[in-house]
Description:
homotetramer; 8 strands; 49% helix
Amino acid sequence: MKSLQGIFSAIVTPFDSSGQLDIEALKANFSLWNKTGLAGYLVLGSTGEVVHLDEKEKLTVLAAARESIPAHMPMIVGTGMHSTDATVAFTKLAAQCAADYALVVTPHYFKSSMTPAALTNYYYKVADTSPIPVLLYSVPQFTGIALSPELIAKLAEHPNIVGIKDSSGDMRVLIQTISLVKPEFSVLTGSAPILYPALIIGAQGAILAVGNFAAKLCYEIFQAFCSQQAETARNQQLKLLTLSEQIASRYGVGGIKYAMDILGYRGGTVRSPLLMPDQTAQTAIQAMLNSFQS
Amino acid sequence: MKSLQGIFSAIVTPFDSSGQLDIEALKANFSLWNKTGLAGYLVLGSTGEVVHLDEKEKLTVLAAARESIPAHMPMIVGTGMHSTDATVAFTKLAAQCAADYALVVTPHYFKSSMTPAALTNYYYKVADTSPIPVLLYSVPQFTGIALSPELIAKLAEHPNIVGIKDSSGDMRVLIQTISLVKPEFSVLTGSAPILYPALIIGAQGAILAVGNFAAKLCYEIFQAFCSQQAETARNQQLKLLTLSEQIASRYGVGGIKYAMDILGYRGGTVRSPLLMPDQTAQTAIQAMLNSFQS
Amino acid sequence: MKSLQGIFSAIVTPFDSSGQLDIEALKANFSLWNKTGLAGYLVLGSTGEVVHLDEKEKLTVLAAARESIPAHMPMIVGTGMHSTDATVAFTKLAAQCAADYALVVTPHYFKSSMTPAALTNYYYKVADTSPIPVLLYSVPQFTGIALSPELIAKLAEHPNIVGIKDSSGDMRVLIQTISLVKPEFSVLTGSAPILYPALIIGAQGAILAVGNFAAKLCYEIFQAFCSQQAETARNQQLKLLTLSEQIASRYGVGGIKYAMDILGYRGGTVRSPLLMPDQTAQTAIQAMLNSFQS
Amino acid sequence: MKSLQGIFSAIVTPFDSSGQLDIEALKANFSLWNKTGLAGYLVLGSTGEVVHLDEKEKLTVLAAARESIPAHMPMIVGTGMHSTDATVAFTKLAAQCAADYALVVTPHYFKSSMTPAALTNYYYKVADTSPIPVLLYSVPQFTGIALSPELIAKLAEHPNIVGIKDSSGDMRVLIQTISLVKPEFSVLTGSAPILYPALIIGAQGAILAVGNFAAKLCYEIFQAFCSQQAETARNQQLKLLTLSEQIASRYGVGGIKYAMDILGYRGGTVRSPLLMPDQTAQTAIQAMLNSFQS
């Protein structure tokens, strides 16, 4: 099993100006990302606008991604759907596309019905049938559902559930999770603002949307952590926090894609109902990026 | 345009014990529902587990429903998808299946990006292209997004946006909405616990999940309101509140389907990750229904 | 025991420009309020800035209020403090000042410790020792704690707990409460936007902050309800909603006091950290009031 | 000005079995705490049940505390009241009792009125008149109000506002705050579960309720941080998280006092409406403490 350590990027799915998949742009991005120190990629995650793609498009993206991702680097694929059966089916498809891991978001439409019993039943069914190892995905800002450390620990007992992307940004959840799971369970944060403290406390790495345009900065923090350069890690973390809050959190996927375009990547456009940043937002993003490059 | 006044049922989609669509059960239910005083139906809504159906299944359900619904009664169809394009496409399909109205849930995955501007852009695009009139659908308990009265009023200016199902249960939103929109805009509550007060304050009707198993009670409240029998309306409303809270709210779609089975309908099972009520819950539902029939 | 039926005003405590109690202004207000159809008054409630008064000031206000309130009209006094002992002591003082009812807010600083057991223990101790009947007060927008219908019903079993002011504005809580308590338990809403529907469903009345400057409008709704003039009640309710949302909810106590000054009452100033409306807000309040008087 | 670096304990106020202040118990506790490596104390904070004390009791506690706290150790005193004038007055009293710092909680009863403008006005008035330096106190779990990093940075510009106790437990707020304020502004976390990551990212220390019964463990983490023993710090942090979540968070002040009694301190009882742990909770606390001592 390929290692889940280090910085992973939750990649965007580029669309051209007419809203169609832009696979050339995707490949161009990989040719740049592959030089940044990233440990691997999450394809078809939230930032990849997976909810805006139909199945055929998803398979096209997966094929192009796998072709562009070096064989030794893990390709994690977002495979969560609303129903258990749909998740099971798409996880199998992703495995056939040479995905290394399936990242499975908590089901969330019927929020009050998503009891620990329902979630356990769901994740066990998915993990039982998945040909590839499963990662949990807790992202309450999108789903309204946060996995508790106790439930994560219970789910981690399944032999085919091998890790979690926790995007809650709640350090207490992260620490408590680490204290409850076995050491080989991969705890990855999805929250750039807490990357360095997460590593310090025992997270093996992170899967980050800012990896699309600030992969090198993320990697520097990881390297500084590994080589115990606390001062560097701390300073770079403060920069990363600002970039993450002011671009990714404030302007969402559109903000990330716009920043990519400025920095030589090919972000392209978003699909409606998402909107690209308006003029004011564009100016703010440009200024933000300038301030970090000067 | 068929009238949107009175009680509509947000119907379940019955599945057999293997989880497959049970169209016979659906037809059997309609033969009972059609005798209850209901004004029409919502097909493929939240309670219909629309998120658990693929497109082919949706079209099968629509065909069977249209066949079972008397021609003079409106068939409202839930057509909201994550992307604007997907919503536009499925709304057209629904119109081809002789839907009378499209009910379009707020897009909600990227919650913080769903600004008034993004929602307006979305609904206008859908309404511009829809062959049938559009109803807004605000259901924060499932989506995390509540349409404000101000935004509803703005959206109501579009000639093809003709009403709203507001399931927030927030009477202030309902009253304020009614005070802001033109009289022909249909304000329907999706919250059974506030049916009678909603009517009193000017709502034209309701689209209710409890309509699956308590349509007659809902209709009695509507009739009592129309004939100004305040005491009857109030008493029946207290009953409806209890049924709604103790069955629909507490046990979700599984609770509704189990209650249907008890009462001679054919609820069938739910699709995972939803669970049917456990033994304790079944006993509670049975007791609750007994207490209302005695 | 004086009746708790009709519209009660949750009166402000006027301060002069130096921030001192302005008892003359208070008396002048009563001389106007007493002609509006109000059924009684809540003194030292949230709107009365009770948290900004020391004990001596509270007693001064109580004395002046009792003197100004006709003997047949109930004077309800807010007596809730943080500790049980402090609440017990001040409730006794209020009774000595001829209060008719004690309104006791949920204790709330240690929110997560305020379990049903803790709240029951609290309210029973207060009710056991209070010389006057006790009203519960649930106001989650200020306290972060909402009393559930089940807990209200349990507390209502105490012979000296005779009613509730529910300011949650949640109609479901109100209806469910009414369905659970004995008929002589007084359910009063504290939410002007839902006054008429609350009456329709069985509330005996309301205790309202907008009673400070719109007592007559509130009373008209109550009268229209009593005489079954549904159209009038509904129309006036829409007006009341707007006034309440645009003045009381948006600008708080300062907004209420400013509106009072415009309408011939003597609101005076607020105590810091509250602020009076700024110039923009003042203009908006003036325009809002003009639109209702023309 | 005495240094605000290291671990501070937010001390409890012991009451005897009749609910009266137990000053002997307080002094006995100090004689133990003073040997644990603590850098100083917060007196009359949330954990000190300041809301359950009258002014005379507060002054009694302050006198006893100052007598027991070595002269070189800072005594921080919670001085926030509901009104600005009351806070100003009590802050002066605290200074007269030889407090070194005033910790001023955000005013919070009128939550929606506590805009940045209102909070700035409040804190500047308090800081302008305070004879001693002021610390901000953000504790949303009790107040419903969280100070944002931007507002903290603005308030930090006042020369007499010298630090913050942030009990939100939100690492993003902490990091962003540190990135915005000048280096001499003291950022102290109030959240034991994130102590070590907070230090790593630049917090100068912490003010902790668990300091009442686990001061040594907190101090070990601080020492391990200072001497760059990452493994020790991490391991002790996991222990501290569990103690904090399972005793302080789960059972509140009563849990802390019960744990103190077990460990040789004199916690005593809590004041109503708080309750002491019931039998089940007592057993759990005892078991939790045993597991850490074996």
